[in-house]
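Researcher: I need the complex structure. Ligand is zinc ion. Inputs:
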Amino acid sequence: MEEDCIFCRIVAGKVPSEIRYRDEEVIAFRDINPKAPIHLLIVSKKHIPSLLQITQAESLLIGHMVTVANELAKKEGVSEKGYRLIINCGKEGGQLVPHLHMHFLAGRKLSDKLG
Ligand code: 5GP
Ligand code: ZN
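Model: Output:
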């Protein structure tokens, strides 16, 4: 773990968060500054700075994160209504926390505008 990484600290339980899901590979918790009624972050337990580090070896992890999103949608009761997954990468992609995470947004009609 990276001592100065906020998501590593959350994964290690050193910073409190509202955890909704946890397994060997990932955890999911509520975003501290929600952009939708349901805003969860699906976070790799391993410190991977961004999508830039994803190679074929990590492609299973990304697939797993999507599966977890599907599970969370069921848990949150939004499978039928729908949800949005976002991974920001780099400065112009809007990434603020340099530890791989996927945003799960749901609970209202999200904007048609993506960028
Ligand atoms: P990014 O812009 O890197 O894609 O998204 C980072 C997200 O992490 C933001 O939506 C922000 O609100 C959330 N965040 C940052 N620090 C914390 C924290 O300490 N706890 C929680 N639960 N979310 C955080
Ligand atoms: Zn980290």
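Model: Summary of the prediction. The chain is about 20% helix and 20% strand.
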